Write a sequence for this structure.
């Protein structure tokens, strides 16, 4: 695909993502029949009923492999499809994300292309629960809907996902750290603003101390005790200063990439006994929906090719390494172990592969 073709694909993806957030249908084309899509998470009961009528009640609900497994079904690689002919909006919503729900009696393996529709929903920061129906190419009910091709997401990722520009930079004096430089980058498929905070005077010839921190409104800003994110942010900034300077990448990836809405839903499930991984699975998400191509793009724009990565998460190290950023060293960065966050931290260690020292997180046996 040419760069112009990939840019056109990115434009269609961005417009389709916006339409889904507004609860409107989009149409996906490919080798097979066109497919009308509606994000259940953003739809109103009225929009749900309109879709039902427009598809002559031949609509179904796509659920991700993680949601299928949470319902007690075998983990289908491409997710499952549940016919919705006899379900109203509330019943479909419960099936999509209610906790401890019984499995549906009728379902089938989902067409593989619906995984791409779910990815589009995640790009929109919506739950991966998609109402869908095959339609005729000239169906008048969907004539004015935004369209995209099955291959568009892959094309968009080759260009737009890695395309960022510096739009602002300024010195900001911080408590206990002195003056740091904030650099704002704009880009990616969704054109979100991302921030790099340059602490001190790091030697850009490397290895540069770098912390990749995903946004956490509840922890970073409000001091939530359910996680250690706020502590990691503060301790990470102090560690960068102690190492002679470095870069904090503050990425817009709330809730391990699920968005603030899903994150607060998951918090409710955690209060009823689920750990952080299982709570996300009830909503259809995997253990970690983040990806770090944004971090790679920003590091390259800053001229950084070798890093001392401040992290407990081997997935970050692996991603940077596989995308040409040399990780010469990994430096642990922790918060404070408390009664409120101990279950969360143990789940990250035992189920998501995060590495903590025995002194910080002793065995619960």
């Amino acid at each position: 695909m040419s760069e112009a073709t990939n840019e056109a694909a990115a434009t269609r993806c961005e417009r389709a993502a916006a339409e889904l957030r507004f609860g409107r249908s989009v149409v996906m084309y490919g080798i097979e029949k066109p497919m009308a899509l509606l994000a259940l998470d953003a739809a109103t009961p009225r929009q749900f009923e309109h879709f039902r009528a427009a598809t002559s009640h031949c609509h179904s609900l796509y659920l991700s492999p993680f949601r299928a497994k949470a319902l007690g079904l075998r983990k289908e690689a491409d997710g499952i499809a549940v016919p919705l002919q006899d379900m109203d909006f509330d019943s479909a919503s419960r099936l999509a994300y209610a906790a401890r729900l019984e499995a549906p009696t009728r379902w089938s393996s989902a067409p593989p292309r619906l995984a791409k529709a779910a990815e589009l929903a995640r790009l929109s920061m919506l739950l991966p629960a998609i109402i869908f129906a095959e339609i005729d190419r000239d169906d008048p009910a969907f004539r004015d809907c935004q369209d995209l091709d099955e291959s568009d997401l892959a094309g968009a990722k080759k260009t737009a996902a890695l395309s960022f520009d510096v739009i602002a930079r300024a010195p900001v004096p911080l408590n206990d750290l002195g003056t740091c430089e904030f650099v704002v980058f704009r880009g990616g498929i969704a054109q979100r603003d991302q921030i790099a905070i340059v602490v001190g005077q790091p030697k850009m010839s490397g290895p540069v101390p770098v912390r990749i921190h995903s946004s956490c409104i509840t922890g970073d800003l409000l001091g939530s005790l359910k996680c250690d994110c706020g502590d990691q942010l503060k301790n990470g900034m102090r560690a960068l200063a102690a190492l002679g300077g470095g870069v904090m990448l503050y990425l817009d990836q709330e809730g391990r990439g699920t968005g603030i809405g899903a994150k607060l839903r998951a918090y409710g499930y955690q209060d009823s006994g689920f750990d952080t991984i299982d709570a996300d699975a009830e909503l259809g998400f995997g253990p970690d929906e983040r990806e770090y191509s944004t971090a790679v793009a920003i590091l390259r724009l800053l001229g950084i090719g070798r890093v001392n990565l401040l992290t407990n998460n081997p997935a970050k190290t692996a991603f940077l390494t596989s995308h040409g950023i040399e990780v010469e060293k990994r430096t642990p960065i922790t918060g404070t172990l408390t009664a409120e966050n101990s279950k969360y931290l143990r789940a990250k260690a035992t189920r998501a592969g995060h590495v903590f020292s025995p002194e910080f997180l002793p065995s619960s046996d």
